[in-house]
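Example record used in the benchmark description.
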Amino acid sequence: MPERSPETHVIDYRAAEQLLAARDPRGAIRLLDSVITAHPENTAARLLRARAFFLSAQLRPAELEFQIVLEREPDNAFAHFALGRTLERASRPEEALRHFRLAAALEPRPEFIEAARFAANGENGENGGNGG
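Model output (structure tokens):
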């Protein structure tokens, strides 16, 4: 196999972005695997691969990849939000809520704030609510 250059990895990363936009997350993952093997420290590539895992319903790999991103960038609001969505899809709402709240605290975007609210149909025994 010929040695891949840094330029090739950039091309693969950009192509993976296009594949993800075109709703081909598995194709994006294939391209990003080689980029991350060559550059394991590349957080942007890991975040993109995490999104691709999420969109292809590979929740455990998505969770692990988002966690790696957050170890490196604990203040990455989008990574917290996306990890929350991943945990939510994996039927782990309490863990998801923690990440939604961190995302909203770091960056008060409307979708982050909305996700950070308690669910009306089950507040897990926490005090709060609409006390009148």
